[in-house]
């Protein structure tokens, strides 16, 4: 595998800010469920939502289930080529309240597409939660019930988000910069 030609630059969202926001987000989600909290299906979108979902689920006291879904929209670049479902929608969503959990809202196509797939599979309700939403007209126009942080229109990585498979392990969300010009690198 080739090494990435972009490097971690400035921190956009710190691990501390993420840690503070997580219980608030879980409380917002619980409140919106209006009593239908037990039996919620949390559906993290692989692979980017892995780290976010792992932290978020531990802020819920109620009974819940986890069903993973795999969607892919980026190849080796930083421009979306449109979402594709890999492996279908889990069968356990029928008649359930489902919360789709994704890493970032960019063009909005992934969330729109997955919401429809889950509804078509017989879910009772579908809500969406993203860690980050880019300040882009198409992202802001996409229905999404829960947003962790608003971020500028930059390509970001870390805390589960990748660039061509790299940087998911960084604990903060960072902007990417051309190789060799990085500053404030998170080590
Ligand atoms: P959308 O379908 O354009 O909203 O893109 C959503 C998907 O693209 C997310 O699930 C991410 O996997 C990926 N993505 C969009 N922007 C970024 C970014 O800045 N960094 C890393 N991944 C991104
Ligand atoms: Mg992704």
Distinctive features:
disordered C terminus, 3-stranded antiparallel β-sheet, Rossmann fold, 10 strands, 7-stranded mixed β-sheet, alpha/beta, binds magnesium ion, 22% helix, binds inosinic acid, 187 residues, globular
Average predicted local confidence, pLDDT: 90
Helix content: 10-25%
Beta-strand content bin: 25-35%
Q: What is the CATH class designation?
A: Alpha Beta
Structural class, from helix and strand content? alpha/beta
This entry's quaternary arrangement is single chain
Question: How is this fold's topology laid out?
Answer:
Elements: E1 6-13, H1 15-32, E2 40-46, H2 50-57, E3 64-66, E4 69-72, E5 84-86, E6 97-105, H3 109-120, E7 125-134, H4 137-140, E8 146-151, E9 156-157, E10 173-178
Parallel strand pairs: 2-3, 2-4, 2-6, 6-7, 7-8
Antiparallel strand pairs: 1-10, 4-5, 9-10
The chain binds inosinic acid and magnesium ion (MG).
Residues 48, 103 line the site of magnesium ion (MG).
If you had to describe this structure to a student in words, what would you say it looks like?
- The structure is a single chain.
- Strands 2, 3, 4, 5, 6, 7 and 8 form a 7-stranded mixed sheet that branches.
- Helix content is 22%, strand content 31%.
- It is globular, with a radius of gyration of 16 Å.
- It has 187 residues and is α/β, with parallel strands linked by helices.
Briefly summarize what is shown:
By secondary structure, the chain is of the alpha/beta class. It has four helices and ten strands.
